[in-house]
Design goal:
It is a single chain. The chain is mainly alpha-helical. It is 62% helix and 4% strand. A two-stranded antiparallel sheet has the order 1-2. β1 and β2 (16-19) form a beta hairpin. The protein starts with 8 loop residues before the first strand and ends in a 9-residue tail after the last helix. It comes from Tanacetum coccineum. It holds the Pfam family Retrotran_gag_2. This is Zinc finger, CCHC-type containing protein.
Protein backbone atom coordinates (compact mmCIF):
# COMPACT_ATOMS: atom_id res chain seq x y z
CA UNK A 1 0.00 0.00 0.00
CA UNK A 2 1.23 3.57 -0.65
CA UNK A 3 2.59 5.88 2.02
CA UNK A 4 -0.35 8.22 1.40
CA UNK A 5 -2.77 5.73 2.93
CA UNK A 6 -3.91 6.99 6.32
CA UNK A 7 -3.54 3.57 7.89
CA UNK A 8 -0.38 2.44 6.15
CA UNK A 9 2.51 1.30 8.29
CA UNK A 10 5.49 3.64 8.30
CA UNK A 11 7.90 2.03 10.73
CA UNK A 12 8.14 0.33 14.10
CA UNK A 13 9.25 1.52 17.49
CA UNK A 14 9.93 -1.50 19.68
CA UNK A 15 6.66 -3.37 20.14
CA UNK A 16 4.55 -0.41 18.95
CA UNK A 17 3.63 -0.18 15.28
CA UNK A 18 3.54 3.44 14.13
CA UNK A 19 0.78 4.56 11.77
CA UNK A 20 0.17 7.78 9.92
CA UNK A 21 -2.78 9.30 11.76
CA UNK A 22 -5.65 11.04 9.95
CA UNK A 23 -5.94 14.75 10.73
CA UNK A 24 -9.06 15.81 12.64
CA UNK A 25 -10.98 18.48 10.75
CA UNK A 26 -14.24 20.27 11.40
CA UNK A 27 -16.56 17.88 9.58
CA UNK A 28 -14.78 14.52 9.70
CA UNK A 29 -14.98 13.60 13.40
CA UNK A 30 -17.02 10.42 12.83
CA UNK A 31 -14.61 8.85 10.33
CA UNK A 32 -11.61 10.26 12.22
CA UNK A 33 -12.71 8.58 15.46
CA UNK A 34 -13.24 5.24 13.68
CA UNK A 35 -9.76 5.33 12.11
CA UNK A 36 -8.06 6.47 15.30
CA UNK A 37 -9.76 3.74 17.32
CA UNK A 38 -8.44 1.10 14.91
CA UNK A 39 -4.93 2.55 15.11
CA UNK A 40 -5.00 2.61 18.91
CA UNK A 41 -6.45 -0.91 19.04
CA UNK A 42 -3.74 -2.16 16.68
CA UNK A 43 -1.16 -0.88 19.14
CA UNK A 44 -2.91 -2.21 22.24
CA UNK A 45 -3.67 1.32 23.43
CA UNK A 46 -7.46 1.55 23.19
CA UNK A 47 -7.83 0.42 26.82
CA UNK A 48 -6.33 3.79 27.76
CA UNK A 49 -9.42 5.39 26.18
CA UNK A 50 -12.01 2.81 27.26
CA UNK A 51 -10.63 1.04 30.34
CA UNK A 52 -12.21 -2.15 31.67
CA UNK A 53 -11.98 -3.88 35.04
CA UNK A 54 -8.69 -5.50 34.02
CA UNK A 55 -7.04 -2.28 32.84
CA UNK A 56 -4.09 -1.25 34.98
CA UNK A 57 -2.49 2.16 35.19
CA UNK A 58 0.30 2.32 32.64
CA UNK A 59 1.96 5.71 32.26
CA UNK A 60 4.02 4.67 29.22
CA UNK A 61 0.98 3.34 27.35
CA UNK A 62 -1.00 6.43 28.23
CA UNK A 63 1.75 8.74 26.96
CA UNK A 64 2.01 6.69 23.76
CA UNK A 65 -1.75 6.98 23.19
CA UNK A 66 -1.50 10.74 23.75
CA UNK A 67 1.34 10.92 21.22
CA UNK A 68 -0.85 9.22 18.59
CA UNK A 69 -3.73 11.62 19.25
CA UNK A 70 -1.44 14.66 19.17
CA UNK A 71 -0.27 13.63 15.69
CA UNK A 72 -3.87 13.87 14.46
CA UNK A 73 -4.51 17.43 15.69
CA UNK A 74 -3.86 20.84 14.20
CA UNK A 75 -1.94 23.41 16.25
CA UNK A 76 -5.16 25.20 17.18
CA UNK A 77 -6.83 21.99 18.37
CA UNK A 78 -3.70 20.99 20.26
CA UNK A 79 -3.70 24.23 22.25
CA UNK A 80 -7.34 23.67 23.20
CA UNK A 81 -6.73 20.29 24.89
CA UNK A 82 -3.25 20.60 26.42
CA UNK A 83 -4.79 21.10 29.88
CA UNK A 84 -5.97 17.46 29.78
CA UNK A 85 -3.25 15.10 30.98
CA UNK A 86 -4.53 11.61 30.12
CA UNK A 87 -5.42 10.01 26.78
CA UNK A 88 -8.99 9.36 27.95
CA UNK A 89 -9.47 12.97 29.09
CA UNK A 90 -8.16 14.26 25.77
CA UNK A 91 -10.34 11.85 23.77
CA UNK A 92 -13.45 12.76 25.78
CA UNK A 93 -12.73 16.48 25.38
CA UNK A 94 -12.44 16.12 21.61
CA UNK A 95 -15.61 14.04 21.49
CA UNK A 96 -17.53 16.60 23.55
CA UNK A 97 -16.25 19.46 21.43
CA UNK A 98 -17.24 17.82 18.15
CA UNK A 99 -20.37 15.94 19.11
CA UNK A 100 -21.79 18.03 21.93
CA UNK A 101 -22.94 17.37 25.48
CA UNK A 102 -24.89 14.25 26.43
CA UNK A 103 -28.27 15.92 26.03
CA UNK A 104 -27.37 17.16 22.56
CA UNK A 105 -26.01 13.70 21.71
CA UNK A 106 -29.29 12.05 22.68
CA UNK A 107 -31.25 14.52 20.54
CA UNK A 108 -28.96 13.78 17.61
CA UNK A 109 -29.30 10.06 18.24
CA UNK A 110 -33.10 10.28 18.19
CA UNK A 111 -32.91 12.14 14.89
CA UNK A 112 -30.61 9.47 13.47
CA UNK A 113 -32.96 6.69 14.65
CA UNK A 114 -35.87 8.48 12.99
CA UNK A 115 -33.87 8.93 9.77
CA UNK A 116 -32.95 5.23 9.93
CA UNK A 117 -36.60 4.19 10.25
CA UNK A 118 -37.79 6.53 7.49
CA UNK A 119 -35.05 5.67 5.00
CA UNK A 120 -36.32 3.84 1.91
CA UNK A 121 -34.70 3.08 -1.40
CA UNK A 122 -36.03 4.91 -4.44
CA UNK A 123 -37.21 2.95 -7.46
CA UNK A 124 -34.33 4.12 -9.67
CA UNK A 125 -31.70 4.16 -6.91
CA UNK A 126 -28.71 1.80 -7.01
CA UNK A 127 -28.02 -0.62 -4.15
CA UNK A 128 -24.57 0.93 -3.63
CA UNK A 129 -26.02 4.44 -3.31
CA UNK A 130 -28.71 3.40 -0.87
CA UNK A 131 -26.46 1.23 1.30
CA UNK A 132 -23.97 4.11 1.54
CA UNK A 133 -26.74 6.23 3.10
CA UNK A 134 -27.69 3.39 5.43
CA UNK A 135 -24.09 2.75 6.51
CA UNK A 136 -23.54 6.46 7.14
CA UNK A 137 -26.47 6.53 9.57
CA UNK A 138 -25.21 3.40 11.32
CA UNK A 139 -21.70 4.85 11.71
CA UNK A 140 -23.02 8.18 12.99
CA UNK A 141 -25.12 6.34 15.57
CA UNK A 142 -22.04 4.36 16.63
CA UNK A 143 -20.08 7.60 17.10
CA UNK A 144 -22.82 8.69 19.53
CA UNK A 145 -22.46 5.49 21.52
CA UNK A 146 -25.36 3.54 19.99
CA UNK A 147 -24.62 0.30 18.15
CA UNK A 148 -27.15 -0.86 15.57
CA UNK A 149 -26.76 -4.63 15.30
CA UNK A 150 -26.17 -6.25 11.91
CA UNK A 151 -29.43 -8.19 12.17
CA UNK A 152 -31.36 -4.92 12.55
CA UNK A 153 -29.56 -3.35 9.57
CA UNK A 154 -30.15 -6.45 7.44
CA UNK A 155 -33.89 -6.45 8.18
CA UNK A 156 -34.06 -2.72 7.51
CA UNK A 157 -32.29 -3.20 4.18
CA UNK A 158 -34.63 -5.98 3.08
CA UNK A 159 -37.71 -3.95 4.06
CA UNK A 160 -36.50 -0.76 2.41
CA UNK A 161 -35.84 -1.98 -1.14
CA UNK A 162 -38.45 -1.48 -3.93
CA UNK A 163 -40.89 -4.15 -5.06
CA UNK A 164 -38.60 -5.24 -7.91
CA UNK A 165 -36.43 -6.93 -5.25
CA UNK A 166 -39.31 -8.91 -3.70
CA UNK A 167 -38.18 -12.18 -5.29
CA UNK A 168 -34.68 -12.10 -3.79
CA UNK A 169 -35.95 -10.69 -0.47
CA UNK A 170 -38.43 -13.57 -0.16
CA UNK A 171 -35.66 -16.05 -0.97
CA UNK A 172 -33.30 -14.56 1.63
CA UNK A 173 -35.99 -14.51 4.33
CA UNK A 174 -37.03 -18.08 3.56
CA UNK A 175 -33.65 -19.76 3.31
CA UNK A 176 -31.32 -17.64 5.47
CA UNK A 177 -30.95 -16.94 9.17
CA UNK A 178 -31.23 -13.16 9.32
CA UNK A 179 -29.79 -13.11 12.85
CA UNK A 180 -26.58 -14.66 11.53
CA UNK A 181 -26.36 -12.87 8.17
CA UNK A 182 -23.85 -10.04 7.87
CA UNK A 183 -24.74 -6.73 6.26
CA UNK A 184 -22.09 -7.31 3.58
CA UNK A 185 -23.66 -10.65 2.64
CA UNK A 186 -27.13 -9.12 2.34
CA UNK A 187 -25.78 -6.28 0.20
CA UNK A 188 -23.89 -8.76 -1.98
CA UNK A 189 -27.03 -10.81 -2.69
CA UNK A 190 -29.08 -7.73 -3.51
CA UNK A 191 -26.35 -6.41 -5.83
CA UNK A 192 -26.18 -9.75 -7.65
CA UNK A 193 -29.95 -9.64 -8.17
CA UNK A 194 -29.70 -6.00 -9.27
CA UNK A 195 -27.14 -6.94 -11.93
CA UNK A 196 -29.44 -9.73 -13.11
CA UNK A 197 -32.30 -7.24 -13.49
CA UNK A 198 -30.06 -4.87 -15.46
CA UNK A 199 -28.90 -7.70 -17.70
CA UNK A 200 -32.47 -8.78 -18.47
CA UNK A 201 -33.49 -5.19 -19.22
CA UNK A 202 -30.55 -4.81 -21.60
CA UNK A 203 -31.48 -8.02 -23.44
CA UNK A 204 -35.10 -6.83 -23.69
CA UNK A 205 -34.05 -3.42 -25.03
CA UNK A 206 -31.70 -5.03 -27.56
CA UNK A 207 -34.48 -7.34 -28.74
CA UNK A 208 -36.93 -4.44 -29.10
CA UNK A 209 -34.40 -2.38 -31.06
CA UNK A 210 -33.66 -5.35 -33.30
CA UNK A 211 -37.38 -5.91 -33.90
CA UNK A 212 -37.95 -2.24 -34.72
CA UNK A 213 -35.03 -2.28 -37.16
CA UNK A 214 -36.38 -5.40 -38.84
CA UNK A 215 -39.85 -3.85 -39.16
CA UNK A 216 -38.37 -0.65 -40.58
CA UNK A 217 -36.40 -2.58 -43.17
CA UNK A 218 -39.49 -4.61 -44.04
CA UNK A 219 -41.59 -1.49 -44.56
CA UNK A 220 -38.99 0.02 -46.89
CA UNK A 221 -38.70 -3.04 -49.11
CA UNK A 222 -42.00 -2.72 -51.11
CA UNK A 223 -41.07 0.84 -52.11
CA UNK A 224 -37.83 -0.40 -53.62
CA UNK A 225 -39.61 -3.21 -55.42
CA UNK A 226 -42.57 -1.06 -56.52
CA UNK A 227 -40.69 0.16 -59.62
CA UNK A 228 -41.02 -3.33 -61.01
CA UNK A 229 -44.80 -3.38 -60.56
CA UNK A 230 -47.69 -2.85 -62.93
CA UNK A 231 -46.80 0.81 -63.71
CA UNK A 232 -43.66 -0.30 -65.52
CA UNK A 233 -45.35 -3.01 -67.51
CA UNK A 234 -45.38 -2.35 -71.25
Amino acid sequence: MSGKNNTSKINEFGSTTHFQCPILKGANYTTWAIRMQIILEANGLWEMIEPNEKTQADNKKDKTAIAFIYQALSEEQLLQITKHKTAKAIWDALKTRHIGEERVQQARLQTLKSDFEMLHMKEDEAIDTFTAKLTTLVNKAASLGHTIEDSVVVRKLLNAVPDKFLQIVASIEQYSDLDEMSVDEAIGRLKTFEERIKSKKKILVDCQESLMLTQHEGQGKPFRERGHGRFNQS
